[in-house]
From TrEMBL:
It comes from Sorghum bicolor (Sorghum). Residues 100-444 form the At1g61320/AtMIF1 LRR domain. InterPro entries: At1g61320/At1g61330-like (IPR053772), F-box-like_dom_sf (IPR036047), LRR_At1g61320_AtMIF1 (IPR055357), LRR_dom_sf (IPR032675). Transmembrane segments: none annotated. This is At1g61320/AtMIF1 LRR domain-containing protein.
């Protein structure tokens, strides 16, 4: 395509000649001298008669018009109305889109975007035609963003059924990027997949376990996949190998399990309820960012250890921490084989203030840890709480020989936090930098100081940290208490 564009541009430039310069040497800006995207935008808004006249008058324009980089149809922009009023303008939107697409018949359209609330069944027939147009136009990038503004108030609204039957492998061979929002996926029995699809974003999509797994398994060249608020109420299992998949994000989906065979996956992001994670085939995973709504600390950790044993950088959050178990410290045989950088966000409820120390269980599963961040959040009852076990109560462990940096935030002078830090310091002979911050970095709530006796005791917490750590750290370790 780049060669085609270059050939057309050169031929047009050759035909331009010397008449682009005024007699006084001042360049004359002509219509065909405008940037390509500006030309396409202007031409797409012309009435049919003016469009035809412009093509007759300008052979150079015909030369550039064989390829169109982008057609974007946004309901609010096209209809010049508030989004809440789109239902009154569906007919106008359909007319405008059809008029523009008619002008681009038999043209290559690189990108087609339709952003219109699916508030009228009248749209369905035309949406089918527009998808067919995209296929016949050799579109590379297709977006159908159909979610109504009030979709969360009307869960019974019907989705647009994506017309797989209008597509065959030949017609969709150019399609590389696709975003589908508020559609339903029901592939027919002869569906063979999107052979060259690289990027897929599914949002508010309806599909069952079988159909979604079938669609994804047949996107064999997929590199980037985001699944956003798609509620299967079942397992998300993709049995087909996705050997090109590098990025996978699952956000706020009602699913009971996730399992992919993506051996070259490098980035995984998950936000939602606690579920088993099955990505053990992903041997090259570099970064994982996981947030569970709630869960028992060690149960969640086991799920991550089983599903992502090869991760190198892990960010791990539990929005509502139910419990931190003690027994798991001695029972766990699982280990992260490559984990070097760990960000741990712990929102400690008042009932767990005596079990903070047991969170060191995650460190015992990270023999190659080099950089550790622990961001504490919790209620005001944590401040200066002198409860919980001592580090001597949890027994010996293998040293963290590679740990060089540790950063603690949300330090409140709690015994569990002090003992956690002392445990690490005493078992990290290569520790170079230790930073303790009494201010919160955790994104969780419930941390406001509400007592009337004055501001939070930051200075007392700092004094506790300095007193305890100064005696334990080596002279080669830089200590910074904020």
């Amino acid at each position: 395509m780049n060669n085609l564009m270059c050939q057309k541009t050169r031929s047009c430039d050759d035909a331009r000649g010397e008449d682009a310069i005024h007699e006084f040497g001042v360049p004359r800006v002509r219509f065909e001298d405008l940037p390509m995207d500006v030309v396409y935008r202007i031409m797409s808004k012309l009435p049919p008669k003016e469009f035809a006249r412009a093509n007759v008058l300008s052979s150079k324009l015909r030369c550039t018009w064989s390829v169109c980089p982008r057609l974007t149809f946004d309901g609010v922009q096209v209809c010049k109305c508030h989004r809440w009023d789109l239902v009154q303008h569906t007919g106008r939107f359909i007319h405008e889109v059809n008029s523009v697409l008619q002008k681009h018949h038999d043209k290559v359209v690189e990108t087609l975007e339709v952003r219109m609330d699916l508030v009228d069944s009248l749209l369905v027939h035309h949406l089918n035609n527009w998808v067919s147009f995209a296929a016949s136009s050799g579109t590379k990038n297709l977006t159908l963003d159909l979610k109504p503004i009030d979709f969360f108030l009307k869960p019974q609204l019907e989705r647009f059924v994506f017309p797989f039957q209008l597509l065959d492998s030949g017609r969709i061979s150019r399609l590389q990027h696709m975003q589908l929002s508020f559609v339903s996926l029901k592939p027919h029995s002869h569906y063979r997949g999107f052979p060259n699809l690289r990027k897929l974003h599914l949002q508010l999509v309806h599909a069952n376990k079988k159909d979604l797994g079938h669609v994804l398994s047949h996107c064999c060249n997929l590199e980037w996949l985001c699944i956003d608020r798609c509620h299967l109420n079942d397992e998300l299992v993709v049995n087909g190998p996705l050997s090109h998949l590098l990025y996978l994000s699952i956000d706020c989906c009602e699913i009971t399990k996730v399992e992919f065979h993506a051996m070259n996956l490098t980035t995984f992001e998950y936000y939602g309820r606690f579920i088993p994670i099955g990505l053990s085939h992903s041997l090259k995973i570099q970064s994982a960012n996981i947030m569970f709504y709630a869960g028992v600390f060690q149960d969640v950790l086991v799920s991550i250890l089983n599903g992502l044993p090869n991760v190198e950088n892990l960010t791990f959050r539990i929005a509502c921490l139910d419990l931190i178990k003690k027994q798991w410290l001695w029972d766990n045989p699982l280990k992260f084989s490559r984990l070097k950088h760990l960000q741990l966000y712990l929102n400690i409820p008042g009932r767990n203030e005596d079990s903070i120390l047991y969170s060191v269980s995650i460190l015992r599963a990270t023999p190659f840890i080099e950089d550790l961040e622990v961001h504490f959040g919790g209620t005001t009852s944590l401040w200066l709480a002198d409860v919980g076990p001592r580090r001597q109560d949890i027994g010996q462990c293998n040293p963290y020989n590679r740990l060089k940096k540790m950063w603690i935030t949300g330090f409140k002078g709690v015994r569990g936090q002090v003992e956690f830090m002392l445990h690490v310091v005493e078992n990290a002979p290569a520790l170079e930098v230790l930073t303790v911050d009494t201010h919160k970095r955790s994104t969780s709530g419930g941390d406001s100081w509400t007592k009337k006796s004055g501001p939070p005791p930051f200075e007392e917490a700092k004094r506790i940290a300095l007193t305890c750590l100064s005696r334990a750290i080596s002279l080669s370790t830089k200590l910074d208490v904020i």
